[in-house]
Amino acid sequence: MKKLIFTITTIVLLAACSKKEPKGNLQITGNIKGLKNGKLYIQRYNDTALVIIDSIQIDGQSNFETAINIDSPEMLYLFLDRGVTNSMDNNIVFFAEPGKINIETELDSYLLSAKITGSKNQEIYEDYKKLATKFKDQNLDLIEAKFYATKYKNLPKLDSINQKLDQNTKRKYLYTANFALSHPEAEATPYIVLSEIHDINIKYLDTIQKTMSKKVAQSLYGKKLTQYVNDLKKQSN
């Protein structure tokens, strides 16, 4: 009897040890409510195109889990293959960093319902986007007004709208620059600068680049920003 118990215990322990654990410095878990079957792809930008770095098969359970290796915090994409279209509405953008990240959303509102937790850089990026959205909304209102002013050839109003558009753009750029200077320890900072205000006056870019912490300067986007600023300096000489 004792031998039987010992044998069973040994088998259980061996099975537990042989169970494959996710390998990678970034563990991604999540749930897509309403999804029973489908495939998820984790993607990253390689130069100008999205490339697949991992795939997850959904078969009966809406929960998912995977692990990958990343060399530095970076923006990744969780693409849901609906088998219909490769629309960006099927892509959840999230700022990945080593550790554990959880993504919760719903099938019917995949993009809008997405909640991402576990990434400090994601929190900083979302803080920026919340405030930056007001500039985008104001621009959309002004563009609509510009359309009607152009349609009815109201030149005085058109000039006024164009001035407001310029002012709104300047406000957004200054706000983004100040946000970047306030977050020198975040790898999200050089990404925001490169994606939102890459064409701002070089003096602002140079100041932001020099303000980055050593850790951020050695990150993926920190190196890209440094190279970009150096290239602009060479062109201006």
Primary descriptors:
237 residues; alpha+beta; Immunoglobulin-like; four-stranded mixed sheet; four-stranded antiparallel sheet; 7 helices; globular
Descriptive notes:
The protein has 237 residues and is an alpha+beta fold. It is built from seven helices and eight strands. The strands form two sheets. Strands 4-1-7-8 form a four-stranded mixed β-sheet, covered by helices on one side. Helix 3 (155-182) runs antiparallel to helix 4 (188-196).
In a few lines, what is going on in this structure?
This protein is α+β, with helices and mostly antiparallel strands. The chain contains seven helices and eight strands.
Element layout with pairings:
Elements: H1 2-18, E1 26-33, E2 37-46, E3 49-59, E4 63-68, E5 74-81, E6 91-96, E7 99-106, E8 115-117, H2 120-151, H3 155-182, H4 188-196, H5 202-211, H6 214-217, H7 220-236
Tell how many strands the DSSP assignment holds: 8
Termini Cα gap: 86 Å
Number of helices: 7
Q: Could you state the order of secondary-structure elements as H and E? A: HEEEEEEEEHHHHHH
Give the overall form. globular
Strand content: 25-35%
The number of domains is 2
The secondary-structure class comes to: alpha+beta
Low-confidence stretches are: 12-19
Mean pLDDT: 90
Radius of gyration: 24 Å
* Proportion of helical residues: 40-55%
List the quaternary state of the chains.
Answer: single chain
- Main beta sheet: strand number and arrangement? 4 strands, mixed
- Biggest β-sheet: strands ordered side by side in the sheet: 4-1-7-8
